[in-house]
Structures are given as C-alpha cells and as structure tokens.
Amino acid sequence: MTNSSPIRPTLRCLQADLGLSLPPPSVPLHKVDHPLVQRAQKQADVAPAEKIVSIDDTVLLKYKPGGSRWRGAVWEERESISSWLVAAGQRKDGAKDDFYQQLCDECTRKRTSLNRLGLEPAPGKRTYSRHLLPTSDDRLRLEVEHADQRLQEARDAVPKLVKEARESPDSAVRGEVFGTEVEAYVYRAVGSYDELYLGLRVVGPAPEQVHDIILKLAVPEAMAEDWAPIEAPHRGNGPGEIFYFTLLEVPELNA
Predict the structure, then answer these.
(1) Do residues 132 and 85 touch, judged by C-beta distance below 8 A?
(2) What is the pLDDT of residues 42-61, one digit of tens each?
(3) Cβ(161)–Cβ(184) below 8 Å
(4) Can you spell out the DSSP letters for the chain?
(5) Is pTM, for the whole model, over 0.90?
(6) What is the pLDDT of residue 141?
(7) How big is the CA angle at 159 (ends 31 and 150), to the nearest 5 degrees?
(8) Are 229 and 242 in contact (CB under 8 A)?
(9) Please, are residues 191 and 170 in contact by the beta-carbon 8 Å criterion?
(10) How far is CA 89 from the centre of its chain?
C-alpha cells in the first residue's frame, strides 16, 4: 500500500464478508480478531499496490497476504490518507474463478442493474464498485472510536495530573486532555480543608461537557454542584481560561 495508515474494514465488509459482529467502540475496527485484518496491519507498508484492473470505475488495490487463502480489495482515501478494506473473500482450491474475478462479476452486474434503471454514474465504465466504499456510518464509527480513545486517555491523564499537583502544592502542573490544556493547582489553605483548583485553557473548540468530564475525572467523589468557576488564586485568568474550585478534606487530598 502507498500509505502507512491502518487498514480498516468497512462495516459492510466486516459483517458480510468477514462474518464478524460489530465490536464495542473500545475495539478499533483495524484491530478486530480476524487473520486478514491482522495481517493487513503487519504488511500495510510492504504489500504491493497492485490495481484490480478489471474494476474500472474506482481504483481498488489487491491485498493478498502470504500464507493465507484470504484475499481483499483495498481503497485508499487520498483526502484523509486512510485505507479501507472494502471487500474480502477466500481463494478456494480448484475454483474456476478467483476472488477478484467474482468481485468484478458483482460490480459488472451492479453496473448493468443501474443502467437498466436509467442511472449511469460515471458513463462509459464497465463496472460499478462505489457501493463498496465507506459510507457515513463508517465515518461515524471512526469518530466514535476516536472519542472513546480520547476518553480512555483522559481517564489515565487527568488523575495523574491531579496526583502530581497534590504532590507539588503551590506549583502548577500542566497537561493536555481532549485537545484542551489543563492546569492543576493545589493551594494549601489554613484549616481542615485544602483547596483544589483546576484551570482549563481551551486550545481548540471544546463543548461544555468536556469540562464536566475533566472535573469528574479529577475528583470522582465531588458532585457537579461542588465545583464553582472563580478567578485563579495564584494568577489572573488567561484568554479563554476558566478556573474551577472545590474543597476536599485533607486526608482525601493526601490519599
């Protein structure tokens, strides 16, 4: 293949060709447990980019992993530098037609059917394969996977950030979560409570619920109403910056 992005099956290919159920968003489709998909990730940078010449309306590339009967057709999306496994099947011993011939026959029948209906997308072509390409559902699934990955990263990053701030009172500790710069600052107050400040400086557009998620991950035992936006205790607020304040008992802060 010509790029190093993961080769992910479309939803149609995953379910119809590979016979797999849709996994939860925590499992990216390019990591599903299937020999063709797994081999595709290992060989994506070295596999030959041989065009399926019998398909003439779209550039589809052959994917033939060594030591396997599985065959695939890959479409490379230049705009997003993405690679999609759009069709797959197995080579059968003694079969008159191989997978790629069967794929061509399917796309030829699809073209004939459209022509009979008076529809002629890309006139002059012999095949029609665009029904195999990623749909809006495929792109939505990819967005959901990315959102789930960012949430998993935040679940690790935010508590770590707050822990470092607790271990360094009166010193700001910075990190990035959901594309937003987060500053954690623990201010030691006199009395039986410590004051915990979290500063959020938005680098890019971030909906309000992202702030809510960060606050929840920072102090799971605090309720949403326990937080209040205030001026930063140790400096003035910067552009696009919000500081939130809550009180926790000293033993909890030192845990």
Answers:
(1) no
(2) 765 555 568 999 999 999 99
(3) yes
(4) --S-S-EEE-HHIIIIIS--PPPPTTS-GGGSS-HHHHHHHHHTTTS---B-TT--SS--EEE--TT-SEEEEEEEETTTTEEEEEEEEE--TT-SS-HHHHHHHHHHHHHHHHHHTT--SSTT-S---GGGS--HHHHHHHHHHHHHHHHHHHHHHHHHHHHHHHHSTTS-EEEEETTEEEEEEEE--SSSEEEEEEEEE-SS---HHHHHHHHHHH-TTS-GGG-EEE--SSSPPPTTEEEEEEEEEHHHHT-
(5) no
(6) 97
(7) 30
(8) yes
(9) no
(10) 26
Of 50, 114, 79, nearest to 122 by C-alpha is 114
129-150, pLDDT tens digit by residue? 999 999 999 999 999 999 999 9
* Sheet containing 173-177: order of strands: 173-177, 180-187, 193-201, 241-249, 228-230
Q: What are phi and psi of 244, to 5 degrees?
A: -115, 150
Helix axes 136-167, 208-218, angle to 10 degrees: 40
83 and 6 Cβ atoms separated by less than 8 Å:
yes
127 φ/ψ angles, rounded to the nearest 5 degrees: -125, 165
**Rounded Cα gap, residues 199 and 203, in angstroms:** 13
Place of tokens 């447990």: 33
Q: What pairs with residue 9 in β-bridges?
A: 85
